[in-house]
Write a structure and sequence with these properties.
This protein is an alpha/beta fold. It is about 50% helix and about 10% strand. Helix 7 links the parallel strand 6 and strand 7. The longest helix is centred in the first third of the chain and has 26 residues.
Length: about 240
């Protein structure tokens, strides 16, 4: 039996009501503690932009270098950088922020593979979560924008979480910038041609919820242009 099969089996093991109630109670306290720690630490970091992308991207790859440049340029405009705290694109984001002298924040998570915190996070700005949903709340609440580089399921999860919250007006609109036209063009075409034109599952104005760019300069400009329009600055 594989580890995954063992975990599935354990979910179906019969438990009495007392066991279930006890487990649920302790889970609630653990979730509360993660929210409290996140809110207390992140309330002090100032304006930040979150950079998302694959944990598997290597330093010699183009998107790693793009993320590093984007993060550096963001710090020169007064923004700190938040990442998921791991390797790959996340490491590049924290590395660029550290080089630029800005806040370098890592919201790490316990995973059985891939995820360990990188060395470029400010020591007092690293938080490690057990629960994805708590971590996602922190990304949305404490970010002034999302910059999304190529990644896998986790990256897509964060991207569509933000787009859904903006679309449904659960949060105010903020800039969502996808970097890498070659990588994202297939997804964007599918959203437009299938989701919108063919199935009518979104509205035409929903296509305005994001931008797709190729360069660090254009990514940072998208953030700057959004806030300049409302006469807001990151160093308020």
């Amino acid at each position: 039996m594989t580890d995954q099969e063992k975990k599935t089996h354990e979910k179906f093991v019969l438990k009495n009501w007392s066991d279930i109630k006890s487990e649920n109670s302790w889970t609630i306290f653990k979730v509360m503690s993660e929210f409290v720690e996140g809110y207390e630490k992140l309330a002090k970091i100032g304006p930040c932009v979150t950079i998302f992308g694959s944990a598997r991207t290597k330093p010699e790859q183009n998107y790693y270098q793009l993320a590093e440049k984007i993060a550096f340029q963001l710090t020169q405009k007064g923004y700190g950088v938040i990442t998921g705290g791991g390797p790959g694109i996340m490491e590049a984001g924290n590395k660029g922020a550290k080089a630029g002298g800005g806040n370098s924040v890592g919201l790490n998570i316990f995973l059985p593979f891939e995820q360990s915190s990188n060395i470029y996070i400010d020591f007092d700005k690293l938080i490690t979560f057990d629960y994805f949903f708590v971590r996602k709340v922190m990304f949305v609440k404490f970010s002034q924008g999302f910059i999304v580089l190529p990644g896998g399921f986790g990256t897509l999860d964060e991207l569509f979480e933000a787009l859904t919250l903006i679309q449904t007006k659960k949060i105010g609109k903020f800039p969502v910038v996808m970097v890498g036209k070659e990588y994202w063009s297939g997804l964007v075409d599918w959203i437009k041609n299938t989701m919108l034109d063919k199935e009518k599952n979104i509205s035409p104005e929903d296509l305005n919820l994001w931008q797709v760019v190729d360069t660090p300069e254009d990514a940072v400009k998208a953030i700057e242009d959004f806030y300049n329009k409302f006469m807001l600055k990151p160093n308020f």
